[in-house]
Amino acid sequence: MTVKVAVAGASGYAGGEALRLLLAHPEVEIGAVTAASSAGTPLGQHQPHLVPLAGRILQETSAETLGGHDVVFLALPHGHSAEIAAQLGPDVLVVDLGADHRLTSAADWQRWYGGDHAGTWPYGLPELPGAREKLAGTKRIAVPGCFPTGGTLALAPALAAGLVRPEVTITAVTGTSGAGKSLKPHLLGSEVMGSASAYGVGGAHRHTPEFAQNLSSVAGVPVTVSFTPVLAPMPRGILTTASAPLAGETDTAAARAVYEKAYQAEPFVQVLPEGSWPVTSATLGSNNVQLQVAVDADAGRLVVVAAIDNLTKGTAGGAIQSMNIALGLPETTGLPTVGVAP
Ligand SMILES: NC(=O)C1=CN([C@@H]2O[C@H](COP(=O)(O)OP(=O)(O)OC[C@H]3O[C@@H](n4cnc5c(N)ncnc54)[C@H](OP(=O)(O)O)[C@@H]3O)[C@@H](O)[C@H]2O)C=CC1
Ligand SMILES: CC(=O)N[C@@H](CCC(=O)OP(=O)(O)O)C(=O)O
């Protein structure tokens, strides 16, 4: 099976990462690559590492340029995917890397993003209970946000097993590529180098409802979430520290056993050997999630640390993993499980 794939937002970080991975996918032929203000320029000007596509001229992003493909990746700013997807018809597999179709609640969408809710598509986090069944054969995929990817996988087993009470605290340190390539004042070199900064503090970040939605679904009861992102001077990677109050007596060995059981069959999730702690540098360029678990007995809390690459598993890799399932391909097809180090 060879599928023809178009990528909208090809000059951006998420679109570029999708192309890097798709170039190595044995069942994919890359078709149109599109953008907006960069349309008309060679892709190589924006993505110099994508040597095989260097001469490809970025086209305008439209139903016309994206039509005629089997799969279309939309790696666009929020609010742009719904209109295009509606014009692509029901037979095209549309993979939305943006936020437009992740939330199940229209009220949450209006509160956190604003505007009309474009509807909810099957959620592209295959490791979530029941996700694979919804992704199989689908023609629409909503890829998770980068923070919810790591944080949901960090806490899901504990909530599902009733190890903790449904009130979680999540802090995630992210690299600057999470903000996209368009220059943002707080990302200017001198503002970021050698400094870490919290933002979206006090429940202000728009991933809060996505965390709550995912974790409440796993727990079977409403889960309250306090999420704090921290920007760090590194290009890629997210290190998440998630914790929750213990629901009863347990210890680190028992908690680790719950996680090892939950993820033993997962090709991209590794619970590290006892004593090893995740580092983002071990996941860069791979679709892996590396986890470690500890019980803080004095504080009566479970603590879970997770490392991912925000551009790989955090968006483009997770998108391709879900595409594989939708197409009936082996889930790991074309996806790296070994990071680039140092
Ligand atoms: N960066 C990350 O770690 C993650 C990103 N995402 C999501 O992926 C999406 C893309 O993000 P990212 O790649 O980081 O952003 P970038 O700013 O790096 O890239 C944005 C892309 O969208 C294009 N674009 C901008 N406006 C329009 C428009 N009106 N019509 C068509 N194309 C447009 C840009 O083209 P041009 O060059 O012409 O401006 C560019 O190719 C966003 O929704 C983001 O939230 C999700 C998870 C993680
Ligand atoms: C550093 C930084 O700015 N990170 C982004 C994460 C973007 C992301 O995950 O994508 P979505 O916007 O599609 O959810 C943020 O905090 O919003």
TrEMBL record:
Sequence ranges assigned to domain Semialdehyde dehydrogenase NAD-binding in this UniProt record: 4-136
The keyword Amino-acid biosynthesis appears for this protein: yes
SMART domains named in the record: Semialdhyde_dh
Residues forming the catalytic site: 146
Reactions catalysed: N-acetyl-L-glutamate 5-semialdehyde + phosphate + NADP(+) = N-acetyl-L-glutamyl 5-phosphate + NADPH + H(+)
Location of the protein in the cell: Cytoplasm
Keywords attached to this entry: Amino-acid biosynthesis, Arginine biosynthesis, Cytoplasm, NADP, Oxidoreductase
Pathway(s) it belongs to: Amino-acid biosynthesis; L-arginine biosynthesis; N(2)-acetyl-L-ornithine from L-glutamate: step 3/4
Highest taxon of the lineage: Bacteria
EC numbers on record: 1.2.1.38
Family listed: Belongs to the NAGSA dehydrogenase family. Type 1 subfamily.
Function: Catalyzes the NADPH-dependent reduction of N-acetyl-5-glutamyl phosphate to yield N-acetyl-L-glutamate 5-semialdehyde.
Name of the protein described by the UniProt record: N-acetyl-gamma-glutamyl-phosphate reductase
The species this protein was found in: Amycolatopsis deserti
Organism lineage string: Bacteria, Bacillati, Actinomycetota, Actinomycetes, Pseudonocardiales
